[in-house]
Each structure stands twice: as structure tokens, then as C-alpha cells.
Amino acid sequence: MKYGFVIPGGEAHEIVEMAREAEVAGWDGVFYWDGIAIEGVGPMFDPWAILAAMAMRTEHVRIGAVLTPLSRRRPWKLARETVTVDVLSSGRLIVPVGLGALDDGGFGKVGEVTDRKGRAQLLDEGLEILTGLWSGQPFSFSGQHYHVDEMTFLPTPVQSPRIPIWVVGAWPRAKSMQRVLRYDGLLPTKVDEKGALTEVTPDDLRAMKAYIAERRTLTTEFVIVWEGETPGDDLARAVEQVRPWEEAGATWWLESRWNNPASRLDEARVRIRQGPPCIKSI
Predict the structure, then answer these.
(1) Which residues, in sequence order, are CB contacts of 278 under 8 Å at separation 6+?
(2) What DSSP element (H or E) covers 170?
(3) How many whole angstroms separate alpha carbon 211 and alpha carbon 213?
(4) Can you give the residue range of the structural domain that contains 215?
């Protein structure tokens, strides 16, 4: 199990310094998030500028933004941004992606596609363009939403065969889970028959893991990510909270505090310094 921390907010210099503190405290990864105009969350900054600064301030931790709604990012621009951060970090970038949250004004208030089907199509085409441009080989693409005349992007990412891509999988929807199979990690969610989000249990996670093990043909490393909030002042209880998810198949735990992130910044900083809920620490 590896342990990451999602920094919920703060001023730009604070966020970068917190990434450094997380590395010192023993976390394996530090993550920011990708938002444009969400009310009530405090200051917001461009994730790629923040991640570039994190890359220069840290040495070992993996870094990324949880998560990038690729449907409102131009994939060729994202290809250039991600390669830049991967080079600056000497190959430590992770790219989590999904449909994104529509409470961000960066969707409806600026005319981006908001329906689920359209965002899913843009996500699939965007991922194909992103990975094609990362290859460093001549690449072209013609899809329903995007057209790319042949071009070659250099340099290539430091990581090979590519920068790891973690994808949101909506269990038990086949199309969503099939998208996960093509990439490098699962961010699990669950939907009911009407498409509403429902609670994911460890048994659900086991079922997702079995589905992936039976169907994924790639031989590259694959991770399963779960996130939650543990008490930093009670390591034994924190470990017990993580244990059911690890036993169900999770290989990354992301410590996250999405509830009122602006007002909980000091709490997040304290939790970073307390270190991960790691069994080896007991």
C-alpha cells in the first residue's frame, strides 16, 4: 500500500510548501486538484503551474491533480503540460482523469459540454490523443469531436511506456469499466440503475478488482485507489480504518479532506506532518 495526501487548498506558496512537508513526513504522493470556478472553496490555482512548482520543491513523492476533467481540457495542450511536469519531476507525475464535477463554473458557465455522454466521448478521444502525442512518433487523429493533423511531440515523457493514467470507473457500468482496462489505475465509484452515485463498499472493490483481473490484457502495473480521512493522532485506529480497503485490493490510500477545504487548511497541514496511516509505523 502507498499513501498520498490531497492538499485541499491554500495560497500557492502554502500548497507547494505543504508538498515538501508531506515528502519529509513520509507520504508517497502529494496531489492537488483541477478546478476553475467553484464557489466556497477559497483560493484556486492552475494545477499544472502548482505541480511544476511541486516538482521543483520535492525529490521523491509522486505528484498529480485529482482529478483532471479531460473533456474541458484541450488534449494537445494537456500533452504538453504533462510532459513538462514529468520532465521537471524526473518522472514522478500521475494523471488521474474523469468526467469532472459540474458544480465547477468551468463547465456550464463557459459553454463546455455538460451531458454525461458527451463528456465521456470527449474523455475517450482526449485520452487517445494524449497517449498518442506522448509517444514521440508522428501522430494523427480523426474522431467525432477532435481532429489532429499529423504532428510529432518532443520530448517524450520520462516515464515509460507512458505517464500513469488513473481513470474513474463507475461500477457496474461496462463502458466505464472498459475504459479503466485500457489504462493504469482505478478510481472507484458506484452508480445505481438511474445513474446516481451510491456508496462503494469493500465488497464492491473486490468485485471491481476481479473484473479487472479477468479482462485487462495490458501487462503494465495497475493500481486501485481509495480515499478517505483518518485520525492522525491515533495511528492504530487509522490503520484499522485503511485495512478493509487494502484487503479488498486497494494499493493506494489518498488522505483527503473535501468537506469545507478552505476552513480546514490548518487541520490538513497538521495531518500531513503526522504522516501516513501506515502499518509499518506501528
Answers:
(1) 1, 3, 26, 239
(2) strand 165-171
(3) 6
(4) 166-220
pTM for the model stands at 0.96
Does residue 79 sit in the same domain as residue 179? Answer: no
- Per residue in 130-159, pLDDT tens? 999 999 999 999 999 999 999 999 999 999
Q: Could you count the other beta carbons within 10 Å of the beta carbon of residue 280?
A: 8
* 37 three-state secondary structure: coil
Can you count the helices (H) and strands (E) in the chain? Answer: 9, 12
Q: Do β-strands 95-98 and 165-171 pair in parallel, antiparallel, or remain unpaired?
A: parallel
132 with 81, same domain: the answer is yes
Q: What is the pLDDT of residues 39-61, one digit of tens each?
A: 888 889 999 999 999 999 999 99
Distances (CA, A) of 64 to 142, 232, 252: 29, 23, 13
Residues 151 and 256 in one domain: yes
Tell me: do 181 and 103 sit in the same domain: no
Residues 156, 20 share a domain? yes
